[in-house]
Amino acid sequence: MTATRASIDTVIALFEREGYARAEPAILQPAEPFLDLSGEDIRRRIFLTQDADGQEWCLRPEYTIPVALAHIAARSSEPASYAYAGPVFRMRANEPNEFAQAGLESFGRPDFAAADAEIMALTVEAAAALGLAKPRLLMGDVSLLTALLDGLCVPQAARRRLMRAVAQGKGTDAVAALEPPAAETEATHAGLLKALEGQDPKAARAFVEDVLAIAGISTVGGRSAGDIAERFLARAAERENPVSGESGTVLSRALAVGGDPDTASAALRALAGEAGLDLAAALDAFDERTGFLAARGVDVGNIGFSAAFARNLDYYTGFIFELHDPARPDLKPIAGGGRYDGVLQRLGAPGPVAAVGASLWLDRLAGEAA
C-alpha cells in the first residue's frame, strides 16, 4: 500500500504540473453506461448490485466513463483536462480484483493531433517516473481503418463484423468477417430482407418496426425495435451491394501494414494510390500526430504501429496505444488509451465532444517502482 500511495502521489503531481485537475468520481457508479459502452470484455467482469428500486449499480471498473459523466454534469463548454488515481474493481484472472489505476482525460480540445501526442507522451513520462524507462510502445488508428472502409464503400453490416473481428485481435484474418452470414442463417430472414431491398430507408424502418410490433417484440438482447430494424436494413443493403473480392484484398493488405509510424504511413499512402483511394486527410492527421510525438521527446522509431492493432474497448474512434514491459512480455499492458470522440454525446452531452485519454495499471508497475 505504501508503494501504491507513492505511485499515486508521483503520477498525480506529474499530471497536475501539466494542468490536469484531480478528479474524484464515486466508487459506486450506475451500471448502464458501462454496459452500453465498454464492450464485452468489461461486461463480463464488473461487480454488479441493485438498489431497492431495482436500478443496477457497479463498483467502478475504470475511470473514463465516471470522469466523462462528471464533466457533462458540470455543463462546461470549455476544454478541460482531468487526472485521477485510485482503486478500480474488475474480475481478472490471476490478478487482484481490486487494483490501483491512474490516468488522464482531455475533453474538448480542437487540436486533435497535439492532444493525442500529449496524452501518449505524458503516459510514457509517468511510466518512466515509476521505473519503466523504455517501454515497448504499440499503436493503432481506428480512424484510418474507418477512412479505408468509407473509401471502399463497405456496407454497414459488413463493416460492423470486420471492426468486431479486428477488436477481437484477429489481425488480417478479420477480413473473413466481410463475408455475409451463413446461408442457413440468412434463409431464416430471406423474405423480410427481400422485401426491404430498394425501399426508402425511412419507410423500410417503419415496416420492420411494424412487423416486430405485430409479433409482440419490443427488445431482443437489449436492442430496441428501432435498433433491430436498423440491422435488418443494413443486411438488406449488404445483399444489394456485397463487398467485392478486390475490396477484401485491399483491406487484407492494409491490415498487414506495420512498422514505425513513418514507415507505416508511407506504406498506406502507396496502397491508397494503387487502389485509387483518397486517404490523404486521415494520413496527414496521422503524420501530424507523429510530428507532435517527436517534438515531445517520444522515440517515434520505437513505436510499433499495426493497422490491425486493437484495444478491448468498443468506444475508440481514433488513435489507440499501449505500453508494455519488454522485460516481462507475458504481462498484460501496463498502460493504454486513445481517442474516443463519440462517448460523451452517447453519455448525454448535447453534442460531440473531442476526447482522448489513457490509464496506467499501477499494480503492474509496482515491481518497477519498488
In short:
The chain has 370 residues and is an alpha+beta fold. It is 47% helix and 18% strand.
Walkthrough of the structure:
- The chain is an alpha+beta fold and 370 residues long.
- It folds into three domains: 1-134 and 351-370, 2-Layer Sandwich (BirA Bifunctional Protein, domain 2); 136-155 and 163-171 and 245-324, no CATH class; 181-240, no CATH class.
- Helix content is 47%, strand content 18%.
- The chain has helices spanning 2-17, 32-37, 39-43, 64-73, 112-129, 142-151, 156-167, 183-188, 190-196, 201-214, 225-240, 245-255, 261-275, 280-295, 343-346, 362-369; strands spanning 21-22, 28-30, 48-50, 56-59, 80-89, 98-107, 136-141, 219-220, 223-224, 258-259, 303-306, 319-324, 335-339, 355-361.
- The strands form three sheets. The protein has a nine-stranded mixed β-sheet with strand order 1-5-6-14-13-12-7-11-10, sandwiched between helices. Strands 2-4-3 form a three-stranded antiparallel β-sheet.
- A hairpin with an 8-residue loop joins strand 5 (80-89) and strand 6 (98-107).
- Helix 5 runs parallel beside helix 14 (280-295) and helix 9 (190-196) packs across helix 11 (225-240).
- It is globular, with a radius of gyration of 22 Å.
